[in-house]
Amino acid sequence: LNRRLAEFGTTIFAEMSALALSTGSINLGQGFPDTDGPEEVREAAVRALRDGRGNQYPPGPGVPELRTAIAVHQQRRYGLSYDPDTEVLVTAGATEAIAAALLALLEPGDEVIALEPYYDSYAACIAMAGGTRVPVTLRPHEGSFRLDLDELRAAVTDRTRLLLINTPHNPTGTVLTRAELAAIAELAVERDLLVVTDEVYEHLVFDDAEHLPLATFPGMRERTVTIGSAGKSFSFTGWKVGWVTSAPGLVTAVRSAKQFLTYVSSGPFQYAVAEALALPDSYFTAFREDMLAKRDLLAAGLTEAGFEVFRTAGTYFITTDIRPLGESDGFAFCRALPERAGVVAIPNAVFYDHREAGAPFVRFAFCKRTEVLEEAAKRLRAM
Ligand code: PMP
Ligand code: GLN
Q1: Span from the CA of 32 to the centroid of ligand 1 (angstroms)
Q2: Alpha-carbon distance 270 to 254, whole Å?
Q3: Is 343 a residue whose pLDDT tops 90?
Q4: CATH topology classification for 12-36+282-382
Q5: Ligand 1 centre from 254 Cα, in Å?
Q6: What is the position in ligand 1's atom list of the atom closest to the CA of 315?
Q7: Pocket of ligand 2 (CB under 6 A)
Q8: Which of 79, 85, 289, 307 is the most buried (most CB within 10 A)?
Q9: What are the backbone angles phi and psi of residue 72, rounded to the nearest 5°?
Q10: Which protein residue has the closest C-alpha to ligand 2 atom 7?
């Protein structure tokens, strides 16, 4: 393994899912639903396969039906208008969108500011692109993790090329507010920065939180690469269909990288995701309400088990503090948890450069069936 990647090893998700399997534990580690997405969308995939749509290389930017559906979705939900031919790109999941965007937009030595804790592929992709990551740490404040805007401003230097934003935020469950996003947008415009914004949990926001795409703020549409995912929005993480919307020049750049990573993304699933994006609002409402009930169920169980539970405003993750349990090392805690309680979780420290800042935090996924969450809560309470 070369020097750029040496520090990354095996992703925590693979390690912890393997541990769940080998110990027969309930896997609340890796974030994937244990119930597949809508039946009619699966049927659409079967039909596409059977009718021979997408069984050979689809067009590089994605099939026109899906690009149009993505553009319609951005218009319908957010009033953002994108040309399906020049401003939309289909990728192999959001993971490839992140990689292709960073590989296309960074020069070696460019600094990328990312919110810490950050989704693990950000660090690896910045490294593969020869960039330097500059983490800005979200800190606990009144029950959730918040961004310090002064710290963000202070992190910008003459070498900063790009802000890598994620809202709703994995793993903290924070949803950036309108005021925070407006400040990020102002900073980007003032310092002429590009913004890559990972909005894969756009449909999972709860209570009074609202998902506001960064691209909707003044001066942002032309400098922002927005990323979405069918894995997250429709519970098909195995299909690996994601997308990018942005201005033509940026989409062309990302596509230039994408064409040499995967060339194209899986054909038949693209047709099915086009139908998923056109589902009525009732699908998205039911999806959100189902996850909200699951959040509340797991949060109550974790609280009863003695964890400090941070408020999840978005995503399907709950971040906890293990110090009330008399523990302080999330790594050690997560490695022991399968034996101790038959449950797998993720130590948030893996998402930090400042590992000590993340040490006592542990993430649990609640995108699981009710009975699974109830059993996990029971085991944790008995621990
Ligand atoms: N970004 C974030 C914040 C995620 O949590 C995930 C999925 N775990 C991804 C990107 C990757 O999405 P996909 O499965 O579509 O590649
Ligand atoms: N995004 C998911 C999570 O945060 C997992 C994705 C993966 O395994 N790479 O748990």
Answers
A1: 10
A2: 19
A3: yes
A4: Aspartate Aminotransferase, domain 1 (3.90.1150)
A5: 17
A6: 5
A7: 11, 13, 30-31, 170
A8: 307
A9: -65, -40
A10: 13
Q: What pLDDT does residue 165 have?
A: 98
Q: Which CATH architecture has domain 39-277?
A: 3-Layer(aba) Sandwich (3.40)
Residue 10 above 90 pLDDT?
no
- Pocket flag, ligand 1, residue 29 (CB < 6 Å): no
pTM, two decimal places: 0.97
Whether 127 shows a pLDDT value over 90: the answer reads: yes
Query: Which ligand 2 atom is at minimum distance from the Cα of 119?
Result: 4
Whole-angstrom Cα distance, residue 278 to residue 260? 30
213 lines ligand 1 (CB under 6 A): no
- What is the DSSP secondary structure assignment for residue 191, as one 8-state letter? T
pLDDT digits (tens, 9 = 90+) for 196-205: 999 999 999 9
Distance CA 19, CA 276 (A): 33
Residues of the chain within CATH 3.90.1150.10 domain(s) are: 12-36+282-382
Q: Who contacts 371 (Cβ-Cβ below 8 Å, separation ≥6)?
A: none
- Which part of the chain is CATH 3.40.640.10? 39-277
β-bridge mates for residue 136, sequence order = 115
Question: pLDDT tens digits, residue range 82-112?
Answer: 999 999 999 999 999 999 999 999 999 999 9
Please give the C-alpha separations between residue 346 and each of 282, 309, 320, in angstroms, as whole numbers.
Answer: 32, 15, 10
